[in-house]
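[scheduler] slot 2 assigned
[scheduler] job type: sequence-to-structure, two independent chains
[scheduler] chain ordering preserved from manifest
[runner] begin chain α
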Amino acid sequence: GRVTDDKDRRCLASLLAVPYSAGAVSVGFALSPDGMYRQPAAASHADYLSYIRALPVSTSPTAFGLHENAAITKDVKETRELLQTVLLTQSGTRSSVAGAADEQLASIVDDISAKLPPDFDLEVAAQRYPVSYLESMNTVLQQELIRYNRLTSVIRSSLASLKKAIKGESVMSAELEQMASALTVSARPYLWMRRSYPSLKPLGGYIADLLERLAFFSEWLRTGTPTTFWISGFFFTQAFLTGSLQNYAREQTIS
């Protein structure tokens, strides 16, 4: 298809500026900043094949106009995917192993359920922090509490359903089975991430981070608007930034 976005067009123009330049067909022309990829002095098809075979097996990011550190991001991503795949292939079909796995899973479910605080009282939040033209943070707070209530509600209800399924009191659905597999290998369940803020943390780090976020907003709700804000603790950071701009503009009467 066609590239219509101006930023995408700028990126493509930058990447193609070197290989599509007039000198790209000249012998010895460097196609990458490190000089690894050059226009070979080849006279036949066999010479071109011989030159290509002599190139490194692993292509450097510089060949695509990227910084060398781009390889670090790629390697980390591939390593994470490999380890997650290995963990998911662990077998637990034997009865003794399955029994121990169920006990471990039930322990994880109970531990997370016990740590989750009650949902925020939205009515109390609306009374203490009503919508105000001069204080946009009140609206931001109410919106954040709604989003976190939705997330904790999903986590709490799914854990309760999974606990019943482990005991055999209800059917183990496909979603619950996927969630059980994720909890077993300390991964974040997809069922939660559909309602969650973006996160790459493993299960333990994700729950600890969630509890810190909930504690931050609970303190805000209890003691008043803080003097400093944990910007990465917001579910929707753009709303906080917009609210800050609105507060300043209205206070300084800037249109």
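[runner] end chain α
[runner] begin chain β
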Amino acid sequence: LPDLDWQAEIPVDSGKFAGYTLLASAFTETEVEAVADLLLGSGMAGFPTEKRTLVVYLRGAVPAFPDGTYLVGRLRAPIERLSTGRRGEEGDDDAFAKDGEVKKNNDVATSSWSEEKASTHGPIVATVGVSFSEKSRRKFSSLAPPSDAAYMSDLTVFEGERGEGLGAAMLTAAEQFAKEMRSQHLYLHVATKKPGVVRLYKNAGYGIRAVDPGIFGWRGRLLMSKRMTE
């Protein structure tokens, strides 16, 4: 099973970050506020609107690993884009990008994640919640996934980077984590008013398992799932 050092390297294959790698890992205490900022900025329903309350909730989720956690994603540019474009002489360390270091180059797409947050939290650009028992997730009034099934929620990409392939990459990271947890299926909910998000999941192989039409179409949602094993 995954341990606290779990990490996945997911290629980004579309958008301005095509060719980059999304480094996904389980969040820690030091990353709680960065995850809170992302979730508060997403406008998703179901979260406390006060940051302090959300931070308390997230801190309580850190010890639940691996039965429940939030994965965070950071971008790493390709070495050839990070470097100065020349192969240095042997021993010329400045000719190559070191892990976690982004060299300035006009050809490199740069994240709009603010410098202040980057210096405090690191360049976290996406997050997603994963849980593997009903004890480590919210209660549902309808469309509850099986109690012992893997469940994904709160897939969020920093607002300035949406539509650039990071959501799909973070979804792949969640699936990889679920597979390493030996889950048979991965379930999720999605609002019917978000056809673009529904399309993302359908394109990734998720099927609709149940529908809650809501009240006169308000707050309608789907329960979707995908098989994680062959």
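[runner] end chain β
[qc] chain β: The helical segments are 32-42, 51-61, 79-82, 115-121, 166-180, 195-203.
[scheduler] slot 2 released
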